[in-house]
Amino acid sequence: MASNVNPTVRRRRLGQELRRLRELKGMTAEEVAERLLVSQSKISRLENGRRSISQRDVRDLCGVYEVEDHRIVDSLMQMAKDSRQQGWWHSFGDIPYSVYIGLETDAASLRVYDPQVVPGLLQTKQYAEALIAGALPETPPAEVEKRVQVRMRRQERISTEENPLRLWTVLDEAALRRVVGNRSLMRDQLEQLVEQSQLPHVTVQVIPFEMGAHPGLNGQYAILEFPDAADSSVVYIEGVTSDLYLEKANDVQKYSVMYEHLRAQALNVEQSRQFIADIAKEYAR
């Protein structure tokens, strides 16, 4: 298969198809688990794309669902094979948020709200180093550097001229005022943010303190959308020990509506760019 196969997305698509076959058969995940003598949680993890799936798993599930069309079985088996390949991020070793990286790599657009820091895709290398070291104080320097390298590699989705990621970012003023590293570093970060905001596929808006309460006070989240209509949108919420991925249409809709409110309450693009530039000048004093 081509080297650009994304194993995360393959697992997700395969899981969606297996769920569809189970529902067509009118079976619950518990019933399938009993037939295959496995745990119900395994079936759930296979269907939500969070677990690697073998061709044997696919064969067994197709048997339970009585799939008679060999073309369908062969297609699912090939997807299972593709899903076990490694993405570019695996070369960096164990990355805690590798599932998210896989989704981001294949996404067509990304909407991000961050109340505390500049989003990873728009960070300078120095800002990323200071932020990761400060947020994870017990992390060895080598691990910090590895995370920074991964973050810089992720930014290729923004810098590439061919099919770049459509990024929309809403920031709270706190993300601009929080001094990560030192004032000089912050000035460089905000100046780069102004520069990046002028890219045709990048939109940056700021919610100033004076706006008061707004729908984003509950915390950071991101909404990923994909080029293939078969891939449903995903809401990603980063956690300390585990991350949350919401894929139900109702959940995605709620977060999408909340994001629209954030965009409406934020300064417009030109006002936001000037707002960031003004704060950058403050750091130069």
From TrEMBL:
InterPro entries cross-referenced by the UniProt entry: Cro/C1-type_HTH, DUF5753, Lambda_DNA-bd_dom_sf
GO MF: DNA binding
Coiled-coil features, chain-numbered ranges: none
HTH cro/C1-type domain ranges (all copies): 18-73
SMART domains in the record: HTH_XRE (SM00530)
The protein, known as: XRE family transcriptional regulator
